[in-house]
Amino acid sequence: MAEAPRTVMELVTTLGTRIASFMFVWAIIRQYVPVELRRNLESYTHRLLDYFYPYIRISIHEFTGSHLKRSEAYTSVEAYLSTNSTKNAKRLKAEVGRDSNKVSLSMDEHERVADEFNGVQVWWLSSKVVSVSRAMSDYPEPEKRFYRLKFHKKHREMITETYLEHVLNKGKEIKRQNKQRRLYTNNSGSSIKYSGRRMWSHIVFEHPATFETLAMEPSKKQEIIEDLSTFSKSKDYYARIGKAWKRGYLLYGPPGTGKSTMIAAMANFLSYDIYDLELTAVKDNTELRMLLIGTTSKSIIVIEDIDCSLELTGQRKKKEEKPDKGKKEAGKEPKDEGGSKVTLSGLLNFIDGLWSASGGERIIVFTTNYVEKLDPALTRRGRMDKHVEMSYCSFEGFKVLAKNYLEVEDHPAFDSIQQLMTEALVTPADVAENLMHKTTTENADVCLSNLIRALNEAKDLKKNELEKLEAMSSDKQKEPVEVEAMLLDQPREPVEVEEMLPNKQAAEESEAVQVEGMLLDQ
Ligand SMILES: Nc1ncnc2c1ncn2[C@@H]1O[C@H](COP(=O)(O)OP(=O)(O)OP(=O)(O)O)[C@@H](O)[C@H]1O
Ligand SMILES: [Mg+2]
Q1: Into which CATH architecture does domain 182-317+337-389 fall?
Q2: Which segments constitute the AAA+ ATPase domain (predicted)?
Q3: What is the CA(367)–ligand 2 centre distance, in A?
Q4: What is the pLDDT of residues 97-118, one digit of tens each?
């Protein structure tokens, strides 16, 4: 037992003597051997050491070449190691990135962390080189920081081919998630210089909507979440089948059912930027193409209220002169004379992905209150891959809103609300409006009774409308005679006659044929 300390002492002594001898010889070499020879000697020594040294080292420098731009590989490794090092490293540094609002942690200089990939152990070291002239110069060079990866040489192939790619991809993903997202809008046509990004102006996108706070059928919500996450992981799949990596969503439903909220939730879920494309401000197809080329990868391109945007709805547009019930505000009506010359075919080309030869994932979302007004060419499958109906509020939807707005998951008023919701049509926006505190003294009980009152009102309204419709349909029995009389007085296009009929949809099926027949007879 007494042997052990003596052996250790001997070892230390021997090692000390060897180091001292080496230092002595090295000092003599430095002093008497010419620089050129010394360099050669160093190089041979490194080669000799490398021959016996079983590890390979790869350095990734912060700045490469003469550019003062940080290397993307370095920042990706930094981001990749941030998660690993927060768990394992003892010395960390905290920074807030230029495009981020979060504090990000990374390894401090000369810190080392281990990582494991497919059962193989690797080590990362963070280090820096300080230039000798740095301290004396008036314009000091920046410190040259780098990461060094060390692994056993028997894993060379796996590390260089698979692990490094994994690190860079993972790092890019983390960087993107930490980045502040942006909401871009297209500038007015006249001021556009056709130079990519200048066509878009942006603000920081900070919408708090998430799928968790979105009120909609749970199974439908889950389907969308899965669709989005499959899409975002399908780079290789899209490349294999030769399709542009994009996905089209058509969101339709009455105002206030959460179409815009859903877009924000999608952007937050995928950490994508949003490009809100105002088609009425786009001069022509060329400008549309330039705008789209100016969008970045991993973004959602949104065209809201597509039915109100330009002459995209084909022939039927001319027929829809009368604003329907619940139609958009005046400001959202299409701009016509002298405005945009974007055509349906221009837009279809864009959706078909001809422009997106530059690759990169993009989601295109159209929203509309009137899906039936859109040209079928615009909505056919393959162009708009997913059609999502955003509908009136269900009881499940209400429960999500009650949790968001009141932090209430159960309440005695829920039973009557559930019953009323089967009898009245209200949008999630209506429900949200009632659940929101109007004063500081309003509590959950008050908000829920407000909602019950609103539901009762909606129920009465629905009842009155039904009664009116019934009255109208009984009047309709006399109509063919009246219409025939009008037609004899003043012949019209069959379409216009259809417009005059109340309850147009039902009339289309049962009576349009009859009226057209009458016209032909004339
Ligand atoms: N499904 C929903 N889940 C959660 N909140 C909703 C939902 N639908 C509407 N809201 C609330 O109502 C407000 C209006 O909704 P939103 O703007 O998303 O409706 P929209 O369908 O886009 O309407 P429009 O057709 O008029 O553009 C939102 O700010 C949100 O607070
Ligand atoms: Mg909207």
Answers
A1: 3-Layer(aba) Sandwich (3.40)
A2: 245-394
A3: 7
A4: 666 666 777 788 888 889 999 9
